[in-house]
Amino acid sequence: MNKFFISLERTPERTARFREANAHIQGLVHAPGIDGSVLDIDSIRQQHFLQADCQFTRGAIGSGLTHVALWGTVAKSGVAAHIFEDDAFLCRNFEEESQRIIASLPEDWDIILWGNNSDTVLQFDLLPGITQCVATFSQDSVREGIHTFRNMDVTSLPFRLDHTFGICGYAISPSGADKMIRSCLPMKTVDIVYPSLGGRRLTATSIDHLMNLHYREMKAYTCLPPLCLTDNQTAQSLNK
């Protein structure tokens, strides 16, 4: 499987940080992010990548289009791939453990998240179709321990995913990539109800929010413990 990581060409320090943090992972391929600050938004709308009334920031549009472009690569090639954002930190045995987990999934799996933002919630099926579970995390402890994490061997289990926030690292199959392209385009501003947040209605501001609308109808998974963490520095995020 290819391993793509997204990082803007105008932020070489983030690219260097990602490569240094994940030097134990072989075959990482830099996917230059689409820089939202220079996009022709009207042209993007005309190409039906963006609804006319979408209120995403330029950064969120560029980030979303970058993921979509990689999904297109996966769908066209017919080969599943890992996709990481440049604030991802991978555990020491990521390659072996991710391979083992994917081999345990049904052949028609679509997507599996290796991690998520630690300042939010993760809802998944602890027992398939029986016990829905909501997990919360401590972002402070994740940030404090993230450099230790990359030297850890992690043993994880996959669970059916309902929703979460953040796409710091995931694997996607050709069928999953095709489904996500069809489901998430054109990108749009829409309100989404989250049971894990007490039924709160949140307005989608990025493509990972739109993905939440479709996980439950796909063969979508998460894994616990995570194989990928992010320090989630929002001030420097691709979505800014």
Brief digest:
The chain is α+β, with helices and mostly antiparallel strands and about 240 residues long.
Features:
nine-stranded mixed β-sheet; alpha+beta; 240 residues; 13 strands; two-stranded antiparallel ribbon; globular; Spore Coat Polysaccharide Biosynthesis Protein SpsA, Chain A
Largest sheet: 9 strands, mixed
What is the structural class?
alpha+beta
What's the CATH topology label?
A: Spore Coat Polysaccharide Biosynthesis Protein SpsA, Chain A
| Rg, Å, rounded | 17 Å
Structure description:
By secondary structure, this protein is of the alpha+beta class. It has one domain: Spore Coat Polysaccharide Biosynthesis Protein SpsA, Chain A. The chain has 7 helices and 13 strands. The protein has a 9-stranded mixed sheet with strand order 2-1-3-9-5-12-8-6-7, sandwiched between helices. The chain has a two-stranded antiparallel sheet with strand order 4-13. Strands 10-11 form a two-stranded antiparallel sheet. Helix 3 runs antiparallel to helix 6. The chain is globular and about 45 Å long.
